[in-house]
């Protein structure tokens, strides 16, 4: 069994594709490996958004509590994707619940550490934020398309 | 000359005359979608290519285009999978066993699944769009050794709207088809994926340089899927989409299905993205 360093794990994740080694090494200083069991909460609505996650294996469901009392899953994040944007924007609180649906392995970045490094070195901040922005853009586009009930109608 | 004209005319007249088919079985696939299995009342079974459609006539109500959803290798009953959305589709799915429907066709271009032989095949379906793709998949699994990786990416509204669940299982288990299903909305105990089917494209395990893709679903979904496939490096002419417009004659006479210079009933419904991209409605959100 090969043991990967955090640096190597990060470089292999699609989120860091094309990012320079020094930047990855610097950000790795904020990272640690984390593991969630099926049904374990990764974070909870209203709580401080103190982490940013790269999913390596497994699946995390993003849940919305409905007024009627039930919860429904509005999105899932799989291996190769990233989880959590609220750590970037004040007041740094989660707006949804996130729950592992299967055994899930991820790299968790300490949000305060990330923000401090971005403030200290805007070039690093730019690299990180442009990647986060790309993901946010994809999710926003998907959310807008879903508003039109994607599979509901076919004929014009 | 006169003879040629009359031969053409008699072909057109034939194409306008429905053949009678009897409903042998109706299967309820989801809350609003049903598969009808039809047998000809006299005459041969209908031969068709994967991706072609017929005009189905419910007597006294009307006629609508519906893709054939069964096995194109022939022999069996003629299958159509129909979502009940209005007066004609309601009458079709409510036809009792033994009831008779009119069938014209088959019409239009097919998926041409053979184009994918020797390489990877990616089928992307949204909603009822899995029905027109089913014959393509049945053809691929029948000749599985001619294809390299076969992937089916399928998006449905909710877990309850997932079509052909037993087929999906069988294709994955017995025919080495990599099936990825995603829904738009999942109940809290759903363990599968939630999100747009287009999100599956960037990380799906196919080799873009040797991939042929077949996409069927609502136009918005097909357009964003085709763009995602092209972004990964799949050639536009190797991305085939099935277009829909309202249809009447099915044989290029009435102009109901016109999309600029194309009559989709004869030039389509299946066309390459290289031809379709400039014609597809822009949707900037
Ligand atoms: C080439 C081709 C292949 C097709 N293949 C299939 C198929 O395999 N299975 C299938 O179920 N349908 C298929 N369709 C769509 C099908 O033809 C229409 O759903 C049908 O014509 C609707 O007729 P209707 O009289 O039941 O509804 P209408 O009375 O015409 O419409 C009732 C209401 O439903 C809306 N509507 C119409 N069509 C749809 C739709 N498809 N989805 C949602 N809302 C709609 C209308 O805007 C209207 O508000 C295909 C269409 C084409 C052009
Ligand atoms: S439906 Fe009449 S021309 Fe196409």
Just give the CATH class of chain A. Answer: Mainly Beta
CATH architecture of chain A: Sandwich
Strand content of chain B: 25-35%
Major sheet details of chain B = 7 strands, mixed
Helix share, percent of chain B: 10-25%
Large-scale geometry of chain B: globular
Radius of gyration of chain A, in Å, reads 17 Å
Class by helix and strand content of chain B? alpha/beta
Structural class of chain A: alpha+beta
In CATH terms, the superfamily of chain A is: Jelly Rolls
CATH architecture of the largest domain in chain B: 3-Layer(aba) Sandwich
Distance between the termini of chain B: 54 Å
Largest interface (C-beta under 8 Å): A-B, 31 and 34 residues
**Strand elements of chain A, count:** 8
Strand order, largest beta sheet of chain A: 1-8-3-6
Q: Let me know the number of strands of chain B.
A: 16
Give the mean pLDDT of chain A. Answer: 88
State the helix count of chain B: 6
Name the shape of chain A in a single word.
Answer: globular
Write structural notes for this entry.
The complex is a heterodimer of chains A (156) and B (285). Chain A is an alpha+beta fold. Chain A has a single domain (6-151), classed as Sandwich (Jelly Rolls). Chain A has helices spanning 6-12, 21-28, 111-120, 122-147, and strands spanning 31-36, 41-43, 51-57, 59-65, 71-78, 82-83, 97-100, 104-110. In chain A, strand 4 and strand 5 (71-78) form a beta hairpin. In chain A, helix 1 crosses helix 2 (21-28) and helix 3 packs across helix 4 (122-147). The termini of chain A are far apart. With 285 residues, chain B is α/β, with parallel strands linked by helices. Chain B folds into 2 domains: 2-107, Elongation Factor Tu (Ef-tu), domain 3, CATH 2.40.30.10; 113-280, 3-Layer(aba) Sandwich (Rossmann fold). In chain B, strand 3 (53-58) and strand 4 (62-67) form a beta hairpin. The A-B interface holds A 14, 59, 61-63, 70-76, 78, 80, 101-102, 138, 141-142, 144-146, 148-156 and B 126-129, 155-157, 161, 182, 184-188, 190-196, 198-199, 203, 217-221, 224, 244-246, 285. Strand 5 (71-78) of chain A pairs antiparallel with strand 10 of chain B. FE2/S2 (inorganic) cluster binds at residues 247-250, 252-257, 263, 265 of chain B.
């Amino acid at each position: 069994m090969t043991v990967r360093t955090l640096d190597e794990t990060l470089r292999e994740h699609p989120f860091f594709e094309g990012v320079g080694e020094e930047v990855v090494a610097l950000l790795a200083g904020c990272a640690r490996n984390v593991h969630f069991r099926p049904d374990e909460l990764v974070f909870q609505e209203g709580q401080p958004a103190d982490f940013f996650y790269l999913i390596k294996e497994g699946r995390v469901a993003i849940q919305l509590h409905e007024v009627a009392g039930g919860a429904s899953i509005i999105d899932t994040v799989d291996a190769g994707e990233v989880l959590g944007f609220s750590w970037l924007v004040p007041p740094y609180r989660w707006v949804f619940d996130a729950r592992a649906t299967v055994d899930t392995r991820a790299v968790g970045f300490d949000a305060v550490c990330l923000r401090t490094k971005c403030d200290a070195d805007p070039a690093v901040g730019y690299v990180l934020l442009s990647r986060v922005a790309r993901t946010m853009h994809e999710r926003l586009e998907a959310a807008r398309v879903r508003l039109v009930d994607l599979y509901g109608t076919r004929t014009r | 000359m006169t003879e040629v004209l009359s031969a053409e005319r008699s072909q057109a007249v034939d194409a306008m005359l429905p053949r009678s088919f009897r409903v042998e079985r109706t299967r309820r696939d989801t809350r609003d979608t049903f598969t009808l299995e039809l047998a000809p009342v006299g005459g041969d079974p209908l031969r068709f290519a994967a991706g072609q459609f017929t005009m189905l006539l419910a007597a006294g109500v009307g006629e609508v285009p519906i893709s054939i959803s069964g096995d194109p290798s022939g022999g069996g009953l003629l299958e159509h999978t129909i979502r009940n959305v209005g007066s004609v589709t309601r009458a079709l799915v409510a036809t009792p066993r033994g009831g008779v429907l009119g069938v014209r066709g088959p019409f239009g271009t097919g998926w041409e699944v053979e184009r994918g032989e020797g390489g990877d095949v990616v089928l992307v379906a949204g909603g009822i769009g899995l029905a027109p793709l089913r014959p393509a998949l049945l053809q691929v699994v029948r000749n599985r050794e001619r294809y390299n990786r076969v992937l089916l990416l399928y998006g449905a509204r909710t877990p309850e709207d997932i079509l052909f669940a037993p087929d999906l299982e069988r294709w994955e288990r017995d025919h080495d088809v990599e099936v990825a299903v995603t829904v738009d909305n999942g109940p809290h105990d759903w363990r599968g994926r939630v999100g747009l089917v287009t999100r599956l494209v960037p990380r799906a395990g196919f080799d873009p340089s040797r991939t042929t893709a077949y996409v069927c679903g609502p136009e918005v979904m097909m357009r964003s899927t085709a763009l995602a496939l092209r972004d990964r490096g799949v050639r536009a002419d190797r991305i085939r989409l099935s277009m829909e417009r309202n249809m009447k004659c099915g044989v290029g006479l009435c102009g109901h299905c016109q999309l600029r210079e194309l009559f989709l009933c004869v030039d389509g419904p299946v066309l390459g993205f290289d031809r379709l991209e400039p014609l597809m409605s822009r949707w900037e959100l």
